[in-house]
Specification:
By secondary structure, the protein is α/β, with parallel strands linked by helices. Helices cover 25% and strands 23% of the residues. The strands form 5 sheets. The protein has an 8-stranded parallel β-sheet with strand order 21-20-19-18-14-11-10-22. Helix 7 runs parallel beside helix 8.
Length: 445
């Protein structure tokens, strides 16, 4: 749909602020001066894997996905512009300053509300209204240990078993042991384990024997071009989902009967093996534009995929969304990653950039306890991570879902003590009300 005018707001250019909410977990989200231009993708793949692939932003101004908030800075009421029905469609919203007027436009139905108080109160009010989409109250998150940031794709069952012993040795309150990427035969091949994981059933049983719950990572709406799924079922593929794992990625048509049967089988099998905590990653791929078996919107197709997963694993299983379209996920996941990956050994310690993910974590704090339990990303406190104290403070302040991703044997006394304390103080899903004062005048990438 073309963009049409929604509003024109008289502002004080020197004091007005714009809150731009991104499309998915990894999309930039923060508050900007009205005179700024928000973040844009620096590389082509980022448009697909970080931003809204079908709607590139204009050269200047702002583009939010389903939620834009304007504080005019002149004493007038804060204005909230949001998707009229985010279960069906999430329009893009644009804002651009011209003199002392901020023009707001959208490419779909939008609801406009004047809010009392400041921008933080306006976002909290939006969150309270949006939380009505939840059929059940939020559940407290379990404490989690995750393999990813220590072992990456090279994880083995022996790595998991070593750390299981270490949790008991060091009295660490880990409830869920989550096997991340690397257990599967291929991206899209969720019925076959890799050569290293010859028996997921045995490993899940080992975890349960320690009194803990087994968890697992899946990228269910995605297929790599080297996968058996893509080779055998090209009619299931929706379109370009970017690139990773040294291969081209495709989204899956979640309305196709074959895809739905396959996903139901895969998740039913994992649940039958004892897994009841699922990290659903790269799920933006289910909401990509493209021709589908059924003529429904990308948002409707995406939600149908999450509903299918929930039905396959049962209401008692815990679902964590990641790389997920945010507003279309409300009511369908228990927890949500609210930032890009924070720990990246190749660029995290250059000393020049702000801690990766910080702005998104702070700027989405209002969602915790309303839309879901916020996941700020895993705690990393090994001595080799130079910014571990800063990161631990951020997780402790904003992490509703507390997870660790260090090899326990690599931790020093400070790391062990910090891990034990943060995992022991998991907060209930009580809403945050404040919006931190992060108001950059230049783009945040």
């Amino acid at each position: 749909m073309p963009f049409t005018a929604v509003d024109e707001v008289v502002v004080d250019p020197g004091h007005a602020r714009v809150y731009e909410h991104g499309w998915q977990s990894w999309s930039p989200t923060t508050t900007y001066a009205a005179t700024a231009t928000s973040a844009r993708p620096e590389r082509g793949w980022q448009q697909v894997m970080r931003f809204r692939p079908e709607t590139p932003a204009p050269e200047a101004g702002f583009q939010a996905e389903g939620l834009l908030v304007v504080d005019p800075g002149n004493g007038e009421a804060v204005r909230v512009y949001s998707a009229a029905d985010p279960e069906v469609d999430v329009p893009s919203l644009r804002a651009r300053l011209a003199g002392d007027h901020l023009a707001v436009s959208a490419n779909g139905p939008v609801r406009s509300v004047e809010a009392a108080g400041d921008m933080g109160a306006a976002l909290a009010g939006y969150g309270d209204r949006a939380s009505a989409a939840r059929a059940q109250p939020l559940r407290p998150a379990p404490t989690v240990w995750c393999t990813w940031y220590q072992y990456f794709l090279d994880v083995t069952p022996d790595d998991v078993i070593e750390n299981l012993r270490a949790f008991d040795e060091h009295d660490l309150p880990v409830e869920v042991v989550q096997i991340d990427d690397g257990w599967q035969a291929g991206i899209g091949d969720w019925l076959e384990p890799s050569d290293r994981f010859d028996s997921l059933a045995d490993l899940a049983a080992r975890i349960r024997d320690t009194g803990r719950r087994p968890g697992i990572w899946v990228a269910p709406f995605l297929a790599g071009d080297r996968s058996e799924l893509a080779r055998k079922n090209p009619e299931w593929l929706l379109g370009d989902a970017g690139a990773n794992w040294e291969q081209q990625l495709f989204g899956l048509d979640l309305t196709h009967p074959g895809v739905r049967d396959y996903l139901a089988t895969a998740f039913g099998r994992l649940r039958g093996l004892g897994f009841d905590y699922f990290k659903l990653d790269f799920v933006y791929a289910g909401a990509l534009p493209g021709r589908r078996h059924e003529d429904v919107s990308p948002v409707t197709a995406y939600r149908s995929g999450l509903e299918l997963v929930r039905e396959a694993v049962g209401e008692q299983s815990y679902l964590l969304g990641c790389g997920a379209p945010m507003l279309p996920s409300v009511g369908l996941v228990d927890a949500m990653r609210v930032s890009p990956d924070t720990y990246n050994p190749t660029d995290i310690d250059d000393g020049e950039n702000p801690l990766r993910g910080r702005l998104c974590i702070e700027s989405r704090a209002w969602q915790h306890g309303r839309l879901w339990v916020n996941d700020a990303d895993c705690l990393i406190v090994r001595p080799a991570f130079e910014r571990r104290a800063e990161w631990a403070g951020l997780v402790e302040r904003y992490g509703g879902l507390r997870s660790s991703s260090d090899r326990i044997a690599d931790l020093d006394d400070w790391g062990l003590g910090t891990t034990r304390r943060i995992l022991s103080t998991t907060p209930p899903p009580v809403p945050f009300d404040a919006l931190p004062d992060n108001l950059p005048d230049t783009p945040v990438r």
